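Subject: mismatched residue count in predicted assembly?

I count 728 residues in my input, but I want to confirm that the predicted structure covers every chain. Input:
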Amino acid sequence: YVRASRADSGRMSVDVERVLIQLQDETGEVLGSPFDVPLDISPDKLQLVCNALLQKPVPYLFFVKDAEVVSSLGSCVQELGLETEQVLPVVYQPQAVFRVRAVARCTSSLEGHTEAVISVAFSPTGKYLASGSGDTTVRFWDLSTETPHHTARGHTHWVLSIAWSPDGKKLASGCKNSQIFLWDPITGSQIGKTLTGHTKWITWLCWEPLHLNPECRYLASTSKDCSIRIWDTVLGRCDKILTGHTHSVTCVKWGGDGLLYTSSQDRTIKVWRAKDGVQCRTLQGHAHWVNTLALSTDYVLRTGAFEPATATINPQDLTGSLDEIKEKALKRYNSVRGEGHERLVSGSDDFTMFLWNPAEEKKPVARLTGHQALVNEVLFSPDTRLIASASFDKSIKIWDGKTGKYLNSLRGHVGPVYQVAWSADSRLLVSGSSDSTLKVWDIKKGKLNADLPGHADEVFAVDWSPDGQRVASGGKDKCLRIWRK
Amino acid sequence: MPQNEHIELHRKRHGYRLDHHERKRKKESREVHERSHKARKMIGLKAKLYHKQRHAEKIQMKKTIKMHEQRKSKQKDDDKTPEGAVPAYLLDREGQSRAKVLSNMIKQKRKEKAGKWEVPLPKVRAQGETEVLKVIRTGKRQKKAWKRMVTKVCFVGDGFTRKPPKYERFIRPMGLRFKKAHVTHPELKATFCLPILGVKKNPSSSLYTTLGVITKGTVIWGKYAQVTNNPENDGCINAVLLV
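Triage response: the counts match. Full output below for your records.
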C-alpha cells in the first residue's frame, strides 16, 4: 500500500491507507480496471465514481463480500478481516431512482361492505382500487375523492380472490361458488359471460402477462377441486383444463416465459407449459401443504407497461397502441429478469420455504428455515433482491433473493401476520396481521418505521399501489382503509 | 279354522253388507263428535288421565305437521350467504374462537392427567399372562418356576442394565428389543422411522407398561403414537401418530 503522509505546520500528519478496488456488478462483470482509493472512502464518494463511470445518475449500494458498505470502506474491510494488499472486489447494486415515502396516516375509512373485506387490489397503474368481500359484492373505489365508485353485484357467495388484468382494463373475481366474473372498472358492470366450470371454490386467479399477449385475453384460475382452468375471456369459455394435483390447488403464477407454476395442498409444485397445457416438472420437497408462491418477476408482470418512476400524482391509464404497450412491457420484463431465469419461492405449512429455479432444474436452490409457524405469504421485492415471508408466528423474515440466505427478522406484531406488500422502490414493506394493525418496516435499517392502528378487527388483505402513493387494507371489520404519507 | 277369523271368512264367502261402507263412513265422522262430548263430560280421576294422554297426543300431532310444513319452505334459507367470511388462505383451516382455546387447553391437561387419549384403536384384545410371559424352569432339577420370559416385543431404555441373572424375575430377550418404530401421520399419509422414547401405556395391564411390552394398541411415547400391528409376528413396529 502506498502511504501518503502530509507533514504541514499546524496540521497533524494524516496517514491514509489506500487500497485497490475493482468495481463489479451483481453478475460479476467488471467495470473498468482496478484503481486505488483511500480506505476511509464513504459510499457517497463511491457512488460519484460509479455515476461517472456508468453515466447513469442512479443511487447505488455497495457490497464487499455480501457485507454492505455503510459508513466507510475501511470499517467494512476491518470487520471482514480482509487483506488490503490484494485487489478488493466491490459489488455495486443500483437502487430505484425514486423514493417512496412511508405511509403514516389513515386518510379515509371506506365503509360500504356489509361483510368482511377479503381481498384488496390496486390496478396496475394505481388508478383504480377494487375490493372483494364476504357480502358477495366487488366494490370499486374512486381514489381521488376516496369515495365509493361502483358496486358490482353478481356473485352468489364470498368473493375470494380478485385479479386485475395487466392493462388495467378488466378485473376478474372468483367466488366460493366456483364462478368467475369479469368487471369493467369504469362502468362497474360485468363484461362478457360468467365463467363457470369449476366444481369447488376458486382459490387464486392470475392473468397472462402483458408482454406475451397485450390483449390480456387469457386468465388462469385454480380451485379446491384440484384443477387449473385457463379461460379465454373474449369468448367466455374454458380453453384448457390442467389436472394432475391430488389436493386443492392453492396458488398459480403465470411466468413471463410462458410457464405456469401451481402449488397445491398435496405438497408439490407443478410447472406447466401454457401453450399446450403439458406438465413439465413436479417440484417436490415440502412436507405439508404449499400455501403460496412468488416469482421474482411478480411485480413487473403485475404492472406490465407501467413504469413506477414515471408515475404522477394523478394516476393515468396506459396509453399507446397494443404494440407499443407490448414493447414497453417486454423491455421492463427483460431488464428485471436479468441473465438467468425466473426464480420461484414457495411457502408452506411445514414452516419452511424453498427457493427454486423451476425453468431449469427439479432440485431446490435453497431451503429457507427459521419460522416457527406456518408461512402464509412470501413475496419478492420489486427489484428481486429480497424475499419477505409472513408467517403465523407473528414475525416477518427477510431473505436474500438470489441465494436464499437469511438476512433479518422483523418482529412487532402480536398476532399471525396475514399479508405483506412491498413499496415500488423495495425500501419499505407493509404488513397486515390478525392483531388489527398494519406496520411499515424500513428494510435498510431492519426496523419498524410506522405502526398503523385503526382497524377494529383482523386485517385480511393489504396492497401498496404500484405508484407508491397509497396503501389500502381491508379486514374483518368490514371497512376498507386508505393510508398515505 | 282359527277362532278369530269367522268374520273374515263370512265376508269372503258372502261379501260385505250392502250399506257397510256408508255406515262405516258415517260412524267414523260421528266419532269426532262423540270424542269431544266425552272429553267435555268426563269428571274425576278418569278425566285427568284422559286429558293427560290427549295432551301428549296433540303435541306429537303438532310436531309432525310442522315437519311437513318445513319441507315446503326450505328454499328461503339457501339464498342467504353464511356469515363469517374468511379469505382463501384461511378457508381450510379451523379458526378456533379465542374463548375455546383456553377451555381446550384445560381439557387437554385434565385428559393427560387421567391418562386417557383419543386413540385410533379404542378396543384391543387383552392379552393374558400365559400368552405374554413364558415360564422358565430353573434349578438343578428344573423344578423352580419363578422366572418368566417375555414373548412379545418390548422396549428398554437407553440406560438399561440387567439385574444379576440369579435375581431377575422377568427376562426380556435381546432379539425382541426394539428401538425404532414406523410412525404414520394420519393426515399426510407419510411414514417416518422414528426412535421410541418410551412406552406410555399398555392397555392389557400396568405390569406390561412397566416392563415395556409392546403389543397391538400400546401407546408409545415420542409424540404419542399407537401401535397398530402385532410386532412379534411382523418383526417391525407400525404405529399411527395421535394428533
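DSSP finds nine helices and nine strands in chain B. Marking this ticket as 'not a bug'.
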